[in-house]
Amino acid sequence: xxxxxxxxxxxxxxxxxxxxxxxxxxxxxxxxxxxxxTFRGLTVSDAINNAGQVTGRSVTFxxxxxxxxxxxxxxxxxxxxxxxxxxxGSTSSGMGINNLGQVVGSASTSxxxxxxxxLYTNGLMTDLNTSIDPTLNITLIxxxxxxxxxxxxxxxxxxxxxxxxxxxxxxxxxxxxxxxVAGAEGINNAGQVTGxxLKGRLVxxxxxxxxxxxxxxxxxxGNSSYATSINDFGQxxxxxxxxxxxxSHAFLYGxxxxxxxxxxxxxxxxxxxGINNAGQVIGFANNGIDSRAFIFxxxxxxxxNDLIDxxxxxxxxxATGINxxxxxxxxxxxxxxxxxxxxxxxxxxxxxxxxLFGFALLGLAGALGLANKRVPYNH
Length: 379
Known about the structure:
Layout: E1 11-14, E2 18-21, E3 25-29, E4 42-48, E5 54-60, E6 70-77, E7 80-83, E8 92-97, E9 103-108, E10 115-121, E11 124-127, E12 140-146, E13 152-156, E14 159-164, E15 167-171, E16 182-187, E17 193-200, E18 203-210, E19 213-216, E20 225-230, E21 236-240, E22 249-254, E23 257-260, E24 269-275, E25 281-286, E26 291-297, E27 300-303, E28 318-322, E29 328-331, E30 338-343, H1 353-367
């Protein structure tokens, strides 16, 4: 849900065939919620806000490498990772964060029990189901995104929903959902929502909900599409099948058109996972064996691994979020760790009035003392 800053990527062209990049990003390991002896914890990032705060889930092994571990939602802020706890169960996962540092996700209500959507704010995790009318007979299962107005999207036993001040709106999809499978993946500050629904067995469609209307975004020429994120200008990213069978390509949808972003050299497929208000897109490319995180900026898709210090000996497998300062959260290989990439130089364009308003809200949050994607990739 966060988006727009122009990052000029400096390159040195050597000969006619090799493009060598300078170090464009500094890299910080987010760490974990705790390690035990020689067993390292695991961390997966899901979202970032304009303050550079990150949420996701972190697992600490509890005895041996064969242990399942216990994933908990976290909030990473100012170099520290905070365990957000659960709703009484053993697991939780952070899925979305807004510019006020409010986190949403899903958490178990008892050991092995049902998952419920949660909101974390002012240091407290709250079950969203406790703030809706119980006579509706609706159970909010997960919350996948939140905007700066506090509108929350997610899934329930009654379908996709938008939650606002205790009121629930059930979102319709453009067509019937096969086996009831659908997902609300992103919401922007205008209240526009994007996501997907399963049209049939192994066939999905991307949608955009805007001003009470829901539309099918179409495909890149194949059968399926899947939307993952939306910025404040209504631009949507995701991935879709081109006419070539067996591959997917990242797309950018805007002004009624879906544009194929291509893929990295040597990688047959690409998946768009996030977009900022500068229209920069992040995600990963895959060739069936290996995955590489990418950024699409100024009409070019670049491997993020070429833009970090090679002395780190680090391979970024997927990028999951990008904010309006060009900061990126990305995940590494198993055992998975999450990383925050910060541009070494961060030129930011003149913000719009709406964008300035968002930062005013963020400043208010600081004064009040507030806390400062489903894709075919194996973490």
